[in-house]
Design brief:
By secondary structure, the chain is mainly alpha-helical. The protein contains 21 helices and 4 strands. It is globular. This is Ankyrin repeat domain-containing protein.
Amino acid sequence: MPTDPSTPPRPIPDRPNLRHLKDQAKELLHTGSARTLSGAQLQIARQYGFRSWPKLKHHVESLHEIGMLKHAIDTNDFNAIRTLMTRNPALHRAPLGYGKSGPLTWVAECRVPWEPPGPTRLAIAQWMIDHGSDIHQGGDAPLMRAALVDHRIPMMELLVRNGADVNAEWNGHFPILFAPCETLNPLALKWLLDNGANPHLPELRGHPSPLDYVIGTYSRSPLQAQCMRLLIDAGCTSKRNIPAAIELLRGRLDILGAMLDADPPLVHRRFPELDFGSTGYRRMTLSGGTLLHVAAEYGNVKAAQMLLARGADVNAPAALDANTIGGQTPLFHAVSQFYDYGLELARFLVASGANLAIRANLPGHYEQPEEFVDCTALAYAAKFPGGDTKTIAFLRSIGAPE
């Protein structure tokens, strides 16, 4: 790795070419900037933060070898993996995969190709473990990455069979149980619970409860309700004392309906304590919104139908906070979802009289905490998640102002 701190080094390319670096050294020699080729090579090495040309050369060659290993993993080339890692056992610790956690993590993630782990991929993982890969590499990254997706359960089984801990914390701060909670994959979540994951341990360690993690995740899926039911059945509780919203999210519309019948004004109530609802892009939450805002955020058309049938206002603005941020109607939540997730709900709200011209002052991009935007629903949809989506096309087709 770079070792010369005397001057800020030039960033080395992700895929450095040794021939290109040699040509750079020759150019220094030809222009008279160096007297000898070895002197020119030393200058090039130091420009990239290395003490010597051999150290730079070794680094470049190792990156090439790591690239070969990644390609072999991506193509499930077991023979090439064995050859590379047997010839160079240091590759078991190569900075590869998610967070550069290591080859076993990349194997366990099954991202390229995106498919369930078949016999070859499982055999690769077992061979790596048997020949020097650390099951806990990257702070228990292999199990954490495997647990993100339901169809990776066979990989989870292999890892736990070889010593991975279902109650570990990835990098010391992210319980493995949170992985399927984040991505809303109930089969992986159930597998962890059935195989010893303690649903109360995260709170004992100072984390949110898994139930609150599911409620607050940026993911959107009908499977959220299933994940919530699994955790509630396992004894998890929520810090959020909003029973009507909890019943809506976990799909118990029968209970929600009974609540509304017993307390008709509930359909109009605004909840400042709804501190969740942001996505991976936008910072807008449900704070100050109604139950219809909640239904719109999570694409629950049946819940929205129930609420409107009981008198909910399709154009109810969320309450403004102390800085006059807010005022969005449920439509804003429906149209600013990933992958057109809220399109069906948006169509329903528009058919039910949603006002397309209403403007609101709202939090902007998740990575820009100082950004706020005054916008219509279409303008917000165009910003989050951005691009030409079916939702945006729908809004423009009906003349929504931007």
